[in-house]
Amino acid sequence: MKVFKGLIYKELKLMKNWFMLGLALLILGVMIGFGLTKYFNEPNIFVAVALLMVVGYGLYLPAYLLSSLNIEGQTQLWLHNPNSGIVLFLAKLTAGIVFYFASFLLSIVIAIWGFKHGGNLESLLQLTGGPALNIVIMAVGITLGTLFLGVWVLFYWSLFHSLKNIPVLSSLRWPVVIGTWLLFTTFGNYVSNLPLYQKLKNIGVIKLNAYSFEIKTWNTTASAGFVESAELSMVNGIIYTVLVFSVFYAAVWLLERKVEV
User: Fold this and answer.
1) Is 212 left (phi over 0), alpha (psi -120 to 50) or beta?
2) Phi-psi map region of 233: left, alpha, beta (phi>0 left; psi -120 to 50 alpha)
3) How many structural domains are present in the chain?
4) How high is the pLDDT of residue 121?
5) What is the rounded CA–CA span in Å between residue 71 and residue 92?
6) Residues with Cβ within 8 Å of residue 110, at least 6 apart in sequence
7) Whole-angstrom Cα distance, residue 118 to residue 187?
């Protein structure tokens, strides 16, 4: 545990500037939102910008891991590291999640503040499931999504660097990685459309109230959300959990046996 904490501290220190850059971009987005709101005298513009920033955090962890792993590849910091791939990758994921939550929660606070000061709240935000519930659902969905994408980034990074040790494929690493992504995507779409998979998804379904939001700016209205109802499938969640662990351990296997960084 002491070694793991040390790796997390090292990762936080290594990526501190990246985190500060993310906060700077968040502040810049707030300034742009305020500027456009004042210029056009339309309070809902800031709300739209705040929502875009919140949704954009779905790409936070993948971007963080790509940057961190790129630094590892350039500095060779992992070359003589005696720790297992599981520990190394978990330390990066943990540090990334810490930075993610610190920044993501701030963006949610900004968005909530924007809702409260965005003019007519009744016409701005229409929720049938309750504001608090839907904010939680949105936050959980974005968090699970960014974690899911982050694990895939670990896999494809490990795959890319593992191909460097295969002379025949060394110069074709990008085509192989892209081809692998297309293969997995096609296979995933095929499986998701199978009748058996559809039946499994209907096992242990939790139904939630529908929710939606509307942003009205001048004569234009933008809306998003579920039309009738939202459903959470427990079996589907189990399948995705197994997939995430499988992809993670595949990345670890490639790192420990094939990658030289």
Assistant:
1) beta
2) beta
3) 1
4) 44
5) 12
6) 26, 30, 50, 53
7) 44
What are the backbone dihedrals phi and psi of residue 84, each rounded to the nearest 5 degrees, phi first? -70, 160
Tell me, what's the pLDDT at 34?
83
Q: Collapsing DSSP states into helix, strand and coil, what is residue 208? A: strand
Provide the token pair at 175.
């085509």
Taking the chain, what is the end-to-end CA distance rounded to the nearest angstrom? 24
Q: Which of 77-91, 95-109, 226-240 has the highest mean pLDDT?
A: 95-109
223 — pLDDT class (breaks 50, 70, 90):
very low
Q: Which of 82-96, 120-134, 166-180 shows the lowest mean pLDDT across its residues?
A: 120-134
What span, in angstroms and rounded, lies between the C-alpha atoms of 173 and 168?
10
Residue-range definition of the domain harbouring residue 209: 2-257
Phi, psi of 27 (to 5 degrees): -65, -40
SS3 215: strand
- Determine contact, residues 64/104, Cβ cutoff 8 Å: no
Take residue 260 and report the two structure tokens written for it: 């030289």
- The CB-side HSE value for 257 (13 A sphere, CA atoms) comes to 6
pTM of the model: 0.82
| Contact predicate 63/148, CB 8 Å | no
Q: Does residue 50 sit in helix, strand or coil?
A: helix
CA atoms of 80 and 97, how far apart (whole Å): 26
Q: What angle in degrees, to the nearest 10, is found between the helix axes of 85-116 and 2-14?
A: 50
Residue matched to tokens 């793991």:
4
